[in-house]
Amino acid sequence: MTATAESPVLIERQGAVVTLCLNRPAALNAVDYTLAEAFCRAVKDISTDASVRAVVLRGAGKGFVAGGDLATLRANPVQGASDILTLLNEALPLLTAMDAPLIAQVHGVAAGAGLSLMLLADFILVAEGTRFAPAYIHLGTCCDVGMSWNLPRIVGLRRALEITMLGEPFDAAEALQMGLVNRVLPADQLEAATQELAQRLAAGPTLAYGALKRLMRQSFERSFAAQLDAEKQSFVHCMGTEDFRAGVEAFYARQKPTFQAR
């Protein structure tokens, strides 16, 4: 998992935490084919690596992601969009299906596809002053990159339609009020807070995190009885892990448990 400083996606590792840094700062990390291809490749690499226990997604330079690359889409709208989304749609289910929690570290601007990418995360930490722009409608298009799946689940259908159909920008305080993000922090504290959270999660029971993510995200498609059954199956599975045994032993010993994601 290596990349040069010129790569459109940088892969950084600190222990069990992997950071994917979208790296087109001159274009505010707008997603073109080369970035989508590099992102897909990076996600495939980490999704099969059991030693990865937390993932951070961030953007280089002055912003998170300014959306899709309009130069690419203007030159070849239909094929350009199809090629980029084919790659992203291959990568994103792999990324969100990982047991490792996904944290978005967001600053500057998250517009269009950048906002959609942000909403995929399990935790979202945002710098004060960040601006959000659900700009799709102003370009005469609908949303992509999972926004139509994630946004109604977070804010409800009525608010999701308002956000996407009016396309009005909003700030970090409004995003927090709507429940779109977890924390708003001073810009100079964002990276440290993100890494602190990532390391905390990486030391946790990764298999249980994965079970929780799947239960929560799939609950909208199940009846209550089916959800109870899914909880039972997941809970019983967790009972058979080494992490559960470590947690129980630590409880009786009045010590902090050490989880190994096994």
Would you write up a description of this structure?
With 262 residues, the chain is of the alpha/beta class. The chain has two domains: 9-202, 2-enoyl-CoA Hydratase, Chain A, domain 1 (Alpha-Beta Complex); 206-253. Helices cover 49% and strands 15% of the residues. It is built from eleven helices and nine strands. The chain has helices at residues 33-47, 70-75, 77-97, 113-119, 147-155, 157-166, 172-178, 190-202, 206-218, 224-239, 242-253, and strands spanning 9-14, 17-22, 54-59, 102-106, 109-111, 123-127, 131-133, 170-171, 183-185. The protein has a six-stranded mixed sheet, with helices on both faces. Helix 1 runs parallel beside helix 3, helix 5 packs across helix 6 (157-166) and helix 9 (206-218) runs antiparallel to helix 10. The chain is globular and about 60 Å long. The mean pLDDT is 94.
